[in-house]
Predict the 3D structure of the following.
Amino acid sequence: MGPKTHSFTFPVLRFAATFRLVTRSALATIALATAAVFLAAAPSAFADDLWLPHSAGATWTYSWSDSVYNPTPTREKVTVKSRTGTSFVLAWTTANLDNAKTAVSSNGTVSFQDTDEGIVNTDWTSDPPPTNFPILCATATSCGNSLASTYYNIIWGSRNPLLAEPLLKGITWGGTGGSKNDVSSVSTYLGNEPVTVPAFPHGVMAAKIRTQITQAGAIGDPYGSGVRITWWVYGVGPVKVVFDHAGGAGAPVATSMLQSTSLKPLPTPTNVDYFPLVKGRSLTYRWTNSKHLRKAEVEKLVVDAVVNNTARFTIKTATGPIKAKGSYGFSKRVAGIANLWGSTASATLSPFPPLGPKDAPASAKIHFASPFDLMDFGLNPVLTAYPSAGEQWSSSTKSSEFNTYGVTGTTRVLGVQTVQVPAGTFKALAVRSTLLQPGFPFGSGTRTCWFAPGVGLVKLVFQHGDKSVSTVVLLR
């Protein structure tokens, strides 16, 4: 079954936001052309991922079994071996846990990294699997694949990412695994449900992930394929794993349950998607300003591309005084919903007051040209990954948003409110920002946005510093 120990390290594919300054090019105009470019960055630093916490001294003890190959349950103790920056290593052992002589014994490590796309498994090492286990490679020589531990069952086929985030309703992601990336998977978040395990005999709320795993060409087929269900508890990590291997009636079933842990469960964060990124969705808005835009501008935005939870919204039609054209990029990551880039151009007889930053030349002053300009103006993220009432974040003078806008401000989640617009009545999350752009009253003021589950922005009211009010409502 290969060497005494095996260790494999693979490059981790990480999302890196690229901030591009889009050339300001004017559209052919009736009287005056204005162009707006919005450049923003999601925060690059993030705290330990609480779906798999790794504070020093944290411990977990699991019991796992395989109905065919390890019918006598094996207890394993998992500890935090090391942590450096956003990377950490967990170690497990079966030693000194009163395991039966017939139970599998092993020692090993699994390495992870907290990324803005979720948790990624970067490496592993362990004793080789018992000789009676199926060989999960095309040849038996130096086979680096194993399913003889709890964590091997957790990471099998879905290392990058192991857990995609933010974990919101409807999320599905693909992954790969195995020592030669020869295992593929599709994971789907099924929602939250209570689960009972020995560590939490009275039940605990968990996120339920179903993973369809496929491996072809291994000597031990079809053991490497099947359906795995993993229950994740916020503040603790995986508490239960059931892997139904392929092969029909009588096929092996591996089960792992958390017996004890030093960690305490935390309230499960909201799984509501307040800003869905779904290709083909369209949103039509009506926008007015009490002083500068009394005749309404109506714009239709369409999601025309989605890749790895990053979407491009394009203005498809625009009728009214502004007649804007352009597109926007938004990503959904651990840091939240961030505007990555945007470019708009407009033709108007009545331009809005120019915006800063103060040191930008007059020819480079930007203007609002669409409802999304009003929504993402000033600071990122537009929303945090798991927004909750009372949550608050502020702009940084060292951010690329500040370099673009010259705006300081604070955003606060007010909570869920009932809001009525032409598109319907919604229970929407209200988010309020206070913005200050010195020397530019139109770029200062108070902005309130309402985001409806499964819809996105349904209403916006921006009370500008020049005493005018911009109002955006969703028509359909």
